[in-house]
Amino acid sequence: MKFWKYGVAAWLTLVIIFGFLIDIPQIQILKESARNLYFHVPMWFTMYIAFLTGMVYSIRYLNSGKIDLDIKAETATQVGVVFGLCGLLTGSLWARFTWGTWWTFAEPKMNLAAVALLIFVAYFILRTAFDDPEKRARFAAVYNIFAVTTIPFLLYVIPRQLPSLHPGADGNPAFSDMTAPELRIIFYPAVIGFIGLSIWLMDIVYRYKKLNYQLEHTID
Amino acid sequence: MTMNKPDYTGLADTLSSAYSDKWVASDEVETAGAFVQFMSSNDLIFVVLGVSLIIWFVILLFLFRIEKKLALLEHRQTEALESKEDHP
Questions:
Q1: Which residues in chain A are closer than 8 Å to B49, comparing Cβ atoms?
Q2: Is A59 within a domain?
Q3: Would you say residue A187 lies in a domain?
């Protein structure tokens, strides 16, 4: 196993320990749940990075036609969806104890995040519609590029214009004065750690998919 | 002669009285061991930390195992491909 993976494991372990132990200022309503910032928000950051990675591989696939690049694009998108689901679930739990409800249709960021994930679920449904791997790869790449371009609009542009309880609404950045600056000390390392974990997961999933592809296409 | 039967219902009542001294929650943290005292401090935040770390370590262990199995499969696959090239 490659050395950097042990680094990711140790790094995230430290993030969890210090995320719980470091003193944080008392913030109204949030209280200790402000620590969720270290775990909930990095899920989304990681999802963005994974989807962007997928888009880059999709573009590169269309340029070169190498099937490996299509497998990489699918892998990155899959890992992105996993992190997005974690973000949605953790957000729902957090909302229950700060906003008083598991889900509200009055909250634009919550609902648009769900819509964004559905767009990527459609990507995997689209992939199952083709038997020919070349054709599947081409259609999936084009669709994926379209899908990723919707993300900034769904998760930044539109929610920021609307009134919302979620930080980063009403024309404000997410790190406004309601979020204590001390939280950044753990927040940024947490983002790095979870992105590292996603790269680790992509590595495993890609190797599995590649083996699977070889088994399906080299046996005569 | 039902009258002579002893009344067991009171003895089996584990809801209002403890079944054994071992199961009595220790209400005096000062008398407990160092570990229990530590875990009980700060409004039990260390218990949440412990639970999170257990989940994280189990996931890590799982990842390490998959890594090992994948590496083995990849090794077998490259060997199979090589032998195919040697004897077409």
A1: 16-17, 20-21
A2: yes
A3: yes
Instruction: Choose from A207, A209, A210, A219 for mutation: most chain B CBs within 10 A.
Output: A207
Does A5 map to a domain?
Answer: no
pTM: 0.82
Side-chain half-sphere exposure of A8, counting CA atoms within 13 A:
21
> pLDDT digit string (tens) for A133-168?
999 999 999 999 999 999 999 998 888 888 887 887
- B53 in A contact zone (CB under 8 Å): yes
Q: Rounded CA gap, B71 and A207, in Å? A: 9
Q: List CB contacts (< 8 A) between B46 and chain A.
A: 20
> ipTM above 0.95?
no
Residue A7 in any domain: the answer is no
Domain span at A118: 31-218
Mutate to test the interface with A, among B42, B48, B56 (most CBs of A within 10 A): B56
Q: The tokens of A47 are what?
A: 């999802």
How far is Cα of residue A192 from the mean position of the Cα atoms in its chain? 13
Hey, what are B7's tokens?
A: 């009344």
Structural domains counted in chain A: 1
What mean pLDDT is reported for chain B?
76
Note whether B68 contacts A208, CB cutoff 8 Å: no
Residue A43 pLDDT: 95
User: Could you tell me if A154 and A3 are in contact, meaning their C-beta atoms sit under 8 angstroms apart?
Assistant: no
Of B49, B71, B77, the CB nearest to A20: B49
